[in-house]
Design a protein that fits this description.
The chain is mainly α. It contains ten helices and seven strands. The strands form three sheets. A three-stranded antiparallel β-sheet has the order 1-2-3. Helix 1 packs parallel to helix 2 and helix 7 crosses helix 10. It is globular.
Length: 312
């Protein structure tokens, strides 16, 4: 009886392994062919110079419009399964390896660095690459009159990662959050140091302390559309169910951090610790933000690094 169960378990394990191999083969083929597929494996678009172009039924490029309307936001999901995070990383590396043009190769390496950084720190896109160009802030002068101001280019610079010598890592990333105005300090762990060291060693970016980390090929600020496009492309190719956008990576960090704490300190303490790191004001907001409920609730940063060690 036990032997029979053991054989069944072996068969299940082999079947799962074969499925994973098939998934990764499809991912590498998609990266090589520069095509985008839907959840059913049907081709829905192509990648042209890093841009996602949808295809009409007649095979011609489709002109698309934004999915959101004024005054209404679209719900986006985190990547909940750690195996799916591995697949996205595998796809991004496959894009790097299969790009022939060096500038495209560097662009995909930059995308992978961005993915690693945000999934591992939970930084908002506005704090990493700066506010949108069309963003305006509401202010009041001394007399109480309202006026609007527009942000200058902000975002992470190399001086936020390295000390003045350009080689020694800082202990933490200290930034003022653009959304709330709070100072946030994020430890630069050994895993993060490895990300940046590999990127600098292989692609030799200009790490002058006053230069921004995430820029486009013209050395200008990286757009939200660029980040949104590569996230949508990678999740579509990897057949991850959900609606994904720029905010999905921060949500992924929060979700994985929370799940890594639940098994160690319990639900309530996990919520409290997660709130203290992410800046959410109450537990109900955090639960709604995560999209979790009691059915799937299964030293914070150290525990999270151990939790994600099999991914990164």
């Amino acid at each position: 009886m036990l032997k029979c169960r053991h054989n069944e378990a072996q068969q299940v394990t082999v079947a799962i392994g074969q499925k994973l191999v098939a998934d990764y083969r499809r991912i590498i083929m998609a990266a090589t062919a520069a095509k985008v597929y839907d959840m059913s494996g049907n081709e829905i678009g192509i990648i042209d110079g890093g841009k996602h172009i949808k295809i009409r039924n007649d095979g011609k490029p489709k002109k698309t419009h934004p999915n959101t309307k004024k005054g209404r936001t679209t719900w986006v999901d985190p990547i909940r399964d750690k195996e799916d995070i591995k697949k996205v990383l595998y796809y991004l590396q496959a894009k790097i390896d299969n790009e022939l043009r060096i500038d495209y190769k560097k662009a995909w390496a930059r995308n992978k660095l961005y993915f690693n950084l945000v999934v591992f720190t939970g930084l908002r896109v506005s704090d990493v690459i700066g506010a949108r160009k069309e963003t305006k802030f509401k202010n009041k002068d001394k007399n109480g009159d309202i006026y609007y101001s527009y942000p200058e280019w902000t975002g992470l610079k190399w001086q936020d990662i390295y000390c003045k010598d350009g080689k020694t890592f800082r202990k933490e990333i200290a930034i003022k959050e653009l959304k709330r105005g709070y100072m946030r300090k994020t430890p630069i762990t050994e895993t993060m140091q490895r990300y940046f060291s590999d990127y600098v060693e292989k692609y030799n970016p200009d790490t002058t302390e006053d230069n921004y980390i995430f820029v486009n090929r013209q050395k200008e600020r990286l757009s939200y559309k660029s980040i949104d496009a590569f996230i949508k492309e990678a999740t579509a190719v990897c057949r991850i169910d959900g609606n994904f956008s720029t905010h999905s990576l921060r949500k992924t960090f929060v979700y994985q951090l929370y799940m890594s704490l639940v098994s160690k300190v319990g639900e309530e303490m996990a919520l409290a610790k997660t709130m203290s790191i992410t800046g959410h004001r109450n537990m109900s907001d955090l639960l709604r933000y995560l999209g979790v409920n009691k059915k799937n609730i299964g030293d914070a940063m150290e525990g999270y690094e151990d939790w994600m060690s099999d991914v990164f």
